[in-house]
Specification:
The complex is a heterodimer of chains A (about 180) and B (about 375). Chain A is mainly α and about 180 residues long. Helices cover about 75% and strands about 0% of the residues of chain A. Among the domains of chain A are: about 60 residues; about 45 residues, no CATH class. In chain B, helix 7 packs antiparallel against helix 11. The model of chain B has no long low-confidence stretch (mean pLDDT about 90). Classes of the chains: A mainly alpha (about 180), B alpha/beta (about 375).
């Protein structure tokens, strides 16, 4: 591989462009503002900085080998496991079960009238359009299921008779299967 | 410092400094190289998963439909049949689809069992619609299961069968076995199937009648929609999705892992609704009143007494199972009258007991190994 000498020139050009661009952005945002913008990160910054410093210390003490990735994964797994255990303890209380039950009840109380109103509205709209509603289709499907069960019972009875015929007239009839 | 060429840096990285003063440890260099390759594989596989998602081919073991009633199907997986007695496998109704038991070639419980010479019958309860909201637990025990058992006996041309219940399939099938003593059940296996609901854990607390009104729930909704089933199970382990995704990222360099993940993820996100009346009876009789262990169930006019079960029994619990904790599974051991009975507790959770590498290693051989000498 030979060094052509073109790369440093390109690099210098790119660097100059970057510096010029940075200056332009700096001028644009350097105008004095009427009020200082609120910083949503202000609350979290001390925590994040503390975490970054702790991580930096940990990494500085640990030699940089591919094992660092494994250690990091292990740290994540342990953190999630700890979270899971903590959440499990909270969820395994009567207070949580009570809150969950109340939430579900509340949800049902609000859902029930809405569901009923929506179903009535859709049914009316479909009736106006002369189309079958979900309730009607469900009723037909239920009838088909019942019909299928009836056919099956007849099939079972026919098979029982056939078996009895095959066994001969003296054989005792097989007990009827409970439906 | 003068200008460095990239080639020089690579050369130093690979061969070290010529004077040996700051030479790179060849072992460390090799490991960095491996890690770099893994990162590239991770990026490739994750990009593929996002940009070019493929539908995993699940349920590949050949099968034939033997019988159907309403939404339920009975499938037969034929084997070279070195064991005379066939196996009827009863999984859970609702919650999820049963292809988890035949997930991928080389990672399938059904493939393992047929490979071991068992004629295997899978009861697929099916996906129920609003027209099935009247279906009850009792219907399943007193109407559907007897027909399925009879079809197994007819098609396998044998005089007995083994029944294997997994998860909710265990209380369903043991209720059937206990209430139908005339059905020739040669062996019974309970895999992660809850029996004593006083020890069921979080779901037991949440569904306690003091906090959960099952009647209002079913009367309002008609059925329990799949999204609610999903929400319930997600709440049981809120950190599950996070750890699953971190594990995916960590292992995404491994093509085999990604293939397995895709299949399992497809299954894990395909929740199935509960018929309303089924859910009402399931919660009230089992979670709230614990009637199975107390011997207070009566299905189709027949009492369900676990003490009437006398066939050989094998119970498998999973140590980290938070859906059916080992204690509530193990309770079956003390409830039956069988003399030949065995309980084992394996590492893993509710799903990893039946699917995945751990299951193939720890669980499946134990199940087939216990069943084989009793299936002649």
């Amino acid at each position: 591989m030979t060094d052509t000498g073109g790369s440093p020139q390109l690099f210098e050009m790119w660097k100059k462009q970057l510096e010029d661009g940075a200056q332009a952005w700096g001028k644009l945002f350097g105008q004095p503002a009427a009020a200082p913008p609120t910083d949503p990160m202000a609350f979290w910054r001390p925590l994040v900085e503390q975490w970054v410093q702790a991580s930096a210390r940990a990494f500085a003490q640990t030699p940089m080998t591919p094992d660092v990735m494994g250690q990091w994964k292990q740290f994540l797994d342990q953190s999630i496991d700890a979270w899971s255990k903590a959440l499990g303890q909270v969820m395994n209380t009567e207070a949580f079960a009570q809150t969950l039950g109340r939430y579900l009840d509340q949800w049902l109380v609000t859902t029930a009238p809405m569901k009923k109103a929506a179903e009535q509205g859709i049914d009316q709209a479909l009736q106006t359009l002369n189309l079958a509603s979900r309730t009607q289709l469900t009723a037909v499907a239920r009838q088909i299921v019942e019909l299928e069960e009836r056919v099956e019972r007849i099939e079972d009875a026919v098979n029982a008779v056939l078996r009895a015929v095959q066994r001969g007239p003296d054989a005792t009839p097989a007990p009827r299967e409970r439906a | 410092m003068g200008q460095e060429r990239f080639a020089d840096i690579v050369e130093r990285f690979a061969s070290g400094y010529r004077d040996g003063a700051a030479a790179v440890d060849p072992d460390a260099a090799r490991r960095w190289q491996e890690e770099l390759e893994r990162q590239v594989r991770r990026a490739q596989n994750l990009a593929d998963m996002i940009g070019n998602p493929t539908d995993p081919k699940v349920g590949c073991t050949p099968r034939e439909e033997i019988y159907r009633t309403n939404k339920s199907r009975l499938y037969r997986y034929r084997s070279r049949r070195s064991h005379r007695i066939p196996v009827l496998f009863v999984p859970n109704l609702g919650i999820s689809r049963p292809y988890i038991f035949d997930l991928l070639p080389g990672g399938s419980f059904i493939e393992h069992m047929t490979g071991q010479g068992f004629d295997f019958y899978l009861l697929d309860w099916g996906v129920f619609g609003p027209e099935d909201n009247g279906l009850t637990f009792e219907d399943c025990v007193a109407k559907i299961l007897p027909k399925m058992a009879r079809k197994v006996l007819e098609t396998s041309e044998t005089d007995s069968l083994s029944v294997l219940g997994y998860c909710m399939g265990a209380p369903l099938s043991i209720s059937f076995v206990a209430s139908h003593p005339e059905v020739p059940v040669a062996n019974y296996i309970d895999m992660a199937g809850p029996i004593d609901f006083s020890q069921i854990g979080l779901f037991g607390l949440w569904l306690d009648r003091r906090f959960f009104n099952v009647d209002r729930f079913v009367d309002t909704l008609g059925a329990v929609p799949a999204d609610l089933v999903k929400a319930g199970f997600k709440l049981l382990k809120p950190t599950m999705d996070l750890s699953t995704n971190i594990n995916l990222w960590w292992n995404s360099w491994n093509d085999k892992y990604v293939e397995g993940f895709n299949a399992l993820n497809k299954w894990a996100n395909e929740y199935v609704a509960f018929p309303g009346e089924f859910f009402r009876q399931w919660v009230r009789d089992f979670y709230q009143d614990n009637k199975l262990v107390r011997g207070e169930l009566n299905f189709g006019g027949r009492p369900v007494r676990l003490s009437s079960v006398t066939c050989p029994l094998f119970v498998v619990g999973a140590r980290e199972d938070y859906i059916a904790p080992p204690a509530c599974v193990r309770a079956l051991m003390d409830a039956v009258s069988s003399r030949d009975k065995e309980y084992i507790e394996l590492p893993g959770g509710h799903i990893s007991l039946i699917a995945g590498r751990g299951a193939a290693l720890h669980c499946w051989p134990k199940v087939s190994g216990w069943l084989a000498p009793r299936s002649a």
